[in-house]
Amino acid sequence: MDQDFAGKVAVVTGAGSGIGEATAVLLAARGAKVIVADLDADAAGRVAKEIGDAAVPYTVDVSDPAACEAMVRAAVDMFGRLDVAVNNAGIGGPQAPAGEYPLDGWRQVIDVNLNGVFYCMRAEIPAMLAGGGGSIVNMASILGSVGFGQAVAYVAAKHGVVGMTKTAAIDYAQQGIRVNSIGPGFIDTPLLAAADQEVIAGVSALHPIGRMGRSAEVAELAAFLASDKASNTTGSYLLTDGGYTAQ
Ligand code: NAP
Fold first, then answer.
1. Which of 11, 93, 206, 211 has its CA 20 to 30 A from that of 68?
2. Ligand 1 center–CA 159 separation, angstroms
3. What 3-state class would DSSP assign to 243?
4. Where are the beta strands (DSSP E) in the chain?
């Protein structure tokens, strides 16, 4: 297997499950030391144990800016540098039409999915600059470019992630930090575990390839963007959506 990340240090948030887990596993397999960061300490511990010596579990709430700073400090204290960050932690939030959307649900989704990505980037960028550069991958969604009923907070947050990514990419393009975002279609992860089979079948049918995506497929794109192979790619929003947004 490629060793694109030999000698590199990566932080992956939301790495205790789904897309983040698959990304942490792949980066470690390609040579990175990985901070497996998640709100769920047990999940972070399980994934770090599965990876082995290359991983360290870390408990973080990305909606807390001080916790994001402490996470980056811990990475630098442990490994001396930070090269890669995959800001992936996210939640689905309540489902309701915009005019009835619960205010606490709005605040929670914006806090985790939008503010959390900003707080992480704000902490990660100075650490990457200190090491001469780095690569940041923010997990957006197809819902960073199109709408979806009953999900106003999620859609707003993901559109925001795409915009923040482009702006941070411009801010640091001359200083060796690339910043990109990913737009997965619906991916078969625990985030969708609450949905019943009828809903899953309906969602699968929305994708021209006829199925939902897999975490490992998103991880491949994250690893590409995080690696030096993507040295001319910054400010981009790349889809892995089975054709969802091509229609
Ligand atoms: P997942 O399986 O639910 O994993 C998300 C992980 O993030 C969970 O371990 C969760 O912990 C953790 N997390 C939640 N809030 C957090 C916080 N405040 N701080 C730190 N960690 C937190 O979800 P996933 O499907 O892999 O989604 C990962 C990312 O991909 C999200 O940003 C999501 O919006 C995006 N995405 C997913 C899909 C999809 O269809 N699955 C499609 C497009 C984009 P808990 O379990 O304790 O909450």
1. 93
2. 16
3. coil
4. 9-13, 33-38, 55-59, 84-87, 134-139, 177-184, 237-240
> With contact defined as beta carbons under 8 Å apart, do 17 and 188 qualify?
no
Output the six-digit token pair for 30.
């390609």
Burial zone of 74 (CB within 10 Å; 0-12 exposed, 13-18 middle, 19+ buried): middle
Answer yes or no: are the C-beta atoms of 89 and 19 closer than 8 Å: no
- Reported as half-sphere exposure (CB side, CA atoms, 13 A), residue 88 has a value of 33
Ligand 1, CB within 6 Å, residue ranges: 13-14, 16-20, 38-40, 43, 60-63, 88-91, 112, 116, 139, 141, 184, 186-187, 189-192
List per-residue pLDDT tens for the chain, 247 residues long. 799 999 999 999 999 999 999 999 999 999 999 999 999 999 999 999 999 999 999 999 999 999 999 999 999 999 999 999 999 999 999 999 999 999 999 999 999 999 999 999 999 999 999 999 999 999 999 999 999 999 999 999 999 999 999 999 999 999 999 999 999 999 999 887 777 888 888 999 999 999 999 999 999 999 999 999 999 999 999 999 999 999 9
Sign of CA dihedral 181, 187, 188, 193: positive
Q: Would you call 242 helix, strand, or coil by DSSP?
A: coil
Which of left, alpha, beta for 10 (phi over 0: left; psi -120 to 50: alpha)?
beta
- pTM for the structure as a whole: 0.98
